[in-house]
Amino acid sequence: MDNIEALKTIIEEHNNIIVFTGAGCSTESGLADFRSTDGLYYQQWDYPPETILSHSFYEEKPAEFFRFYREKLLVSGIEPNAAHKAFARLEQEGKVKAVITQNIDGLHQAAGSRQVLELHGSIHRNYCESCGKFYGFDFMQAANGVPSCSCGGRIKPDVVLYEEGLDDRILAESIEAIQTAEVLIIGGTSLNVYPAAGLINYFRGDKLVLINRSAVARDLAADLVIKEPIGEVLAQV
Ligand code: ZN
After folding, report:
1. N or C terminus of the chain with fewer C-beta within 10 Å?
2. What is the pLDDT, as a whole number, of residue 99?
3. What distance in angstroms lies between residue 13's CA and the mean position of ligand 1's atoms?
4. Rounded to whole angstroms, how far apart are CA atoms 222 and 3?
5. For this structure, is 84 an active site residue?
6. Residue 116, strand partner residues
7. Of 34-38, 87-91, 104-108, where does mean pLDDT reach its minimum?
8. How far is the CA of 45 from the centre of ligand 1 (A)?
9. What separation in Å is there between the alpha carbon of 56 and the centre of ligand 1?
10. In what order do the strands lie in the sheet with 155-159?
């Protein structure tokens, strides 16, 4: 039996599936992984992405932070791909109970998924640091320099920056979902971002499925490993 058939069988035979996705799930929608830097990158930016997207950098150099945020994260015209759509359909069919994602692009919701646990927040939510007023994607993209609220306060993306902790409620819900899942499908991540990657250790279910185009950072006792792009795989399920 080939890998796709094996995946189909696992999905058919279980009704409590949890999906865990990372950046690789969005690259097939045309969104570059901001961690993948090429030669061009350092002609445009003086710091590595992990530095720019840190809490201290946000406080010290907000104008440079927002230049990066707009250019690299607030990307227009990105649509869900076959993986996002398949997980949304499987939720409607009662198979997938929740998607836990490291991505901040909102593509799972755009595809129709309703139970989405965003470990690292979302570019679609931005809040005034003074009064708490909400601002969406379009406002942030159109703003110049450091975006400010009508009250004069600075607007911060609801995105977990480096040096910041994960949201306790999202983390607790993610752990519970993984602990009670029969099947865990991990897709588009090499599991090298902690603490999110440590969540996998809570899984005690039947089948662990790994779908990633390249090798994964740590050894996992997976029941099924598919080394192909997740969109191409899910398009066949
Ligand atoms: Zn305000």
Report:
1. N
2. 98
3. 50
4. 13
5. no
6. 99
7. 34-38
8. 30
9. 21
10. 134-135, 121-128, 155-159
